[in-house]
């Protein structure tokens, strides 16, 4: 008996009721990217009931997903989840999926002169390198802007965003990747008193005008002060297998085995491999391309194509999910590629639950991503967690 939890990074499905508080009123990742691409061709997700979700939401009028109409007889249960935590970032979304609630939210740096002077001074003293940037910026844009200065001086490009992040970009020929990770460890320790969600290593290669970020990105997350469902499962001898950046998001806790894949194709191949090989336990994966490559770069057509490739993979993958298994597909936040700016968007996320041999149900609107954690606790027969209602 095994469960597979797939998190489609940033695939939101409509503005949350409190979206205006985050400057995100009107955001709707799936419907807007589908419209921009002239329709979304995802027949397997449609059969699972993806198109049945928008009518559940409180939109007036309902924003349907072009090319993905409701399915009369879906093969999976479907619903949507509303985030209860304060935030719209990777850590907040994933932690809530794992049973936690982030309240108050993580600390966000201001957009200009972002980092406090004492933090900059301590960071420069411990690393021996100057810090340049010190503002909110698109990662690709700030590398283009400051990359030449970095190559000449060795100063580290440090920047933030609308999320709670301290990001460090460095050319792999100037700062070897292990050294960049060491600098991020230093930044992580210095940022802890502020409750910063993530420190992120952003290595890149190339020459001015052709800089390119590599897949050696690494996240250094704030340490949760409560057990996640992953830790609770491992304590009860239920193995947990992590795919992608999952190990970093959960600070390498509650994980039996992990592989840090850097793109969707590698993550999907590993999920398929482990589904065939593992007889029991939880396989949890983050599919990162939608957010990292397309959402932040506001590439709606690329985003749509990436989802279509995942749908093709799902067509061949679903037969591997056997009777008695549980497959959950969801997301951690939105990132509407047609919206203003380059940041995440506060949205509902889709919920698709596939259990071969069992009838599909309308799961409605779930108040809290942690309904997934509660459902996993029920599925594996371990004690209930403090939050959430099981849909199992």
Secondary structure blueprint with pairings:
Blueprint lengths: L1 E7 L20 H8 L6 H6 L28 E6 L7 H8 L19 H11 L3 E6 L2 H15 L2 E5 L4 E7 L5 H15 L6 E8 L6 E2 L4 E4 L7 H7 L4 E4 L2 H4 L7 E3 L4 H14 L3 E7 L1 H7 L4 H18 L8 E5 L18 E6 L7 E6 L3 H10 L12
Helix pairs in contact: 1-11, 4-6, 10-11
Which terms would index this structure?
392 residues; alpha/beta; Alkaline Phosphatase, subunit A; Alpha-Beta Plaits; 2 domains; 6-stranded mixed beta sheet; 12 helices; 19% strand
Query: Share of helix among residues?
Result: 25-40%
**Radius of gyration computed on alpha carbons:** 20 Å
Structural class: alpha/beta
What percent strand? 15-25%
* Apparent shape: globular
Low-confidence stretches: none
CATH C-level category of the largest domain: Alpha Beta
Q: Helix count?
A: 12
Question: Could you characterize the architecture of this molecule?
Answer:
Helices cover 31% and strands 19% of the residues. The chain has two domains: 2-101 and 224-380, Alkaline Phosphatase, subunit A (3-Layer(aba) Sandwich), CATH 3.40.720.10; 117-221, Alpha-Beta Plaits (2-Layer Sandwich). It has helices spanning 29-36, 43-48, 90-97, 117-127, 139-153, 177-191, 229-235, 246-249, 264-277, 289-295, 300-317, 371-380, and strands spanning 2-8, 77-82, 131-136, 156-160, 165-171, 198-205, 212-213, 218-221, 240-243, 257-259, 281-287, 326-330, 349-354, 362-367. The strands form two sheets. An eight-stranded mixed sheet has the order 10-9-11-1-12-13-2-14, sandwiched between helices. Strands 3, 4, 5, 6, 7 and 8 form a six-stranded mixed sheet that branches. The relative contact order is 0.22. It contains twelve helices and 14 strands. It has 392 residues and is α/β, with parallel strands linked by helices.
């Amino acid at each position: 008996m095994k469960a597979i939890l797939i998190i489609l990074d940033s695939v939101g499905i409509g503005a949350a009721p409190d979206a205006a508080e985050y400057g995100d009123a009107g955001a709707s990742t799936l419907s807007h990217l589908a419209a921009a691409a002239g329709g979304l061709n995802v027949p397997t997700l449609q059969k699972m009931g993806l198109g049945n979700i928008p009518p559940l939401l409180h939109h007036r009028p309902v924003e349907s997903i072009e090319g993905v109409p409701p399915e009369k007889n879906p093969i999976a249960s479907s619903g949507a989840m509303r985030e209860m935590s304060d935030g719209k970032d990777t850590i907040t979304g994933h932690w809530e999926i794992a049973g936690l609630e982030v309240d108050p939210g993580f600390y966000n740096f201001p957009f200009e002169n972002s980092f406090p002077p004492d933090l900059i001074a301590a960071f420069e003293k411990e690393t021996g390198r100057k810090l340049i940037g010190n503002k909110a910026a698109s990662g690709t844009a700030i590398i283009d802007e400051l990359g030449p200065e970095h190559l000449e001086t060795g100063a580290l490009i440090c920047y933030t965003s609308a999320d709670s992040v301290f990001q460090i970009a460095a050319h792999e020929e100037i700062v070897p990747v292990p050294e960049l990770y060491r600098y991020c460890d230093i930044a992580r320790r210095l940022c802890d008193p502020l409750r910063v969600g993530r420190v992120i290593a952003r290595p890149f290669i190339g020459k001015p005008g052709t800089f390119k970020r590599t897949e050696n990105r690494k996240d250094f997350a704030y340490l949760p002060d409560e057990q996640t469902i992953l830790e609770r499962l491992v304590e009860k001898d239920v193995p947990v297998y992590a795919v992608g950046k999952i190990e970093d998001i959960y600070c390498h806790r509650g994980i039996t085995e992990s592989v840090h894949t850097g793109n969707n194709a590698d993550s999907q191949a590993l999920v398929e491999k482990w589904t065939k090989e593992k007889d029991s336990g939880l396989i949890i994966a983050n599919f990162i391309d939608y957010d990292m490559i397309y959402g932040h770069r506001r590439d709606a057509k690329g985003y749509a194509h990436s989802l279509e490739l995942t749908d093709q993979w799902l067509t061949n993958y679903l037969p591997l999910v056997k009777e008695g298994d549980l497959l959950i597909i969801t997301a951690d936040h939105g990132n509407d590629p047609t919206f203003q700016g380059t940041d995440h968007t506060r949205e509902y996320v889709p919920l698709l639950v596939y259990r071969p041999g069992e009838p599909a149900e309308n799961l409605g609107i779930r108040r809290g991503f942690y309904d997934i954690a509660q459902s996993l606790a029920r599925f594996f027969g371990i004690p209930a967690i403090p939050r959430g209602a099981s849909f199992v």
